[in-house]
Every structure is written in structure tokens, then in C-alpha cells.
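Chain entry —
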Amino acid sequence: MLALLRRVLGDCTVEADRSWAHGGATVLLVRDARGARWVGKQHRDRDRYRAERDAYRRWVPALGERAPRLRFADDATGTLLLSAVRGGPDWSRGLTPPVQRRAGAVRRLHEAAEPEPWPEFATVRLAEFDRWAPAAAELLPAPSLAAVRAAVLDLADLPVPHRVPCHGDYTPRNWLLAPVDGAGGDRFTVIDFEWSGRDVWVADLTRLAVGPWRDDPELAAAFLAGYGRALGAVDRAMLLRCAAVRAVFLAVWGHRYGEVALERSARDQFARLAGELRAD
């Protein structure tokens, strides 16, 4: 990848390797001859590359300074060249009301394209569940999987929702925070759009809603205040079911790639969600 980056930037040096342990992409922070910093990201999975490339071209500009900008994309190698932004992920600071309020800016992404009616929503979610359920059967109790599948079937009884551009993995792990000189608070930037695509708006709330928001409702209130929208009864019904399907996927993903903490968290969340959906 470095040779490709040098063809675009000219002479540049690697300052840090920021690749994730799961190996889905190689991520390098580089500095060019003029001192500007850039991030090169080379995906191993073509679908993840195309999703992130298309998001940066179509939707991410709506976030303005809250996201990097795309300079170059190379389809042959699955490589993106992005502007580097200050800061780093900080899970504990991300779970504070001021940062949650800033995170509500994801609405700008959701409004980056016209919402589309999505009559196939229930069918798509059921297919997603059925895709991961066989692998999840080794990790999650069969009665709970059956209860969640029955609840997902109930999505067909809800009003037809709209789908909008979504991040797909919206958690503090993908938020960069940096102190603002001469001002209080943090600069907030969103990264890692490889799971982006059109979905219902509450899909971007799933990991927050079943995680930190359960223990601290003030965080949910701050986020929704920043977003500028409340959760209605239909929103909550969709959110619970989307979160349960997501937990199935994350349990399988965490197990497959050796992310022990992610798998454990997903299994715990799935157990709680299955119980709630039985009572719903």
C-alpha cells in the first residue's frame, strides 16, 4: 500500500500503524513532504471497501468537519486515502452526556439523501437473522433464538419504515475526540464507514441502546437531544428487534475473529433482548 500512497502523495513516511487486530484492513497514518497527515486504508474485503468508498463519495460530506474527507480511492487494491483528523477513540469519554449530544450529529448523515420507503424491511431483517442463526446456534440458546426470530417476524405488522444512509457501526470506538484549543469540550469526528448502507435510522442506535444507555438513561436523553428526535413506540419496537439481530451477528463475528470481549458483550445483550422480546 505504501507504494500506492507515494504515487499519490509523493514522498511520505509512515508515522503509525492503526490497523485493527481482526485484520479486516491495513490502516497507516502517513506524513507527506509538506507535513500534512493522511490515512491510507486498504480493505481485504471488497464489500467493505465498496461500502466505505461509496459512503465517502455520497453521504459523508454531509457531516462536514465531523468526518475525514476522501482524497483518492483505488478499486484495484481496495485502498482509500483519507485526510487525517486529530484525536482518538476514548470509550469512557464517549459515554458522557456532552459527547453523546455531539454524537447526535449522525442525523446529518441520515439526512444526506432522501429517505426511501422500505416495504421489504421485515423480509430483509428476517433474512439477516437467518443468515447468522446457524453459526449462532453454537453460541446462543435455541429457545432464545426462536423467540427472537418470532419477534423479528412481527416487524411485518409495523407501518412501512423509511431507510436512510446509516453508519452501521456507530459506537465510541469509531468516534475520535480531541480537545478544542481555547474552548471547552472536544472536537468530535466519525470514522470507519465500511459497514455503512441504507437502513432504518434506529439501526445506528442499536449498540448504544442495548449497551451504555441501559445503565444511564441520561446518555440516551443527551443523544436524542443532539439528534433532535424522540423515540416513538414504533421506533422502539424496531430498535429492539434490530438490536437483537445485530447481537446475533456480533456474537458470531466476535467468536470467529477472537474478539472475546465483543463476543461476551453480544451474548449478554442477546440474553437481555430475548427476555424483553418475549415479554413485548
Q: What stands out?
A: The chain has two domains: 2-83, 91-279. Residues 233-256 form the longest helix (24 residues). The chain has twelve helices and ten strands. The radius of gyration is 19 Å.
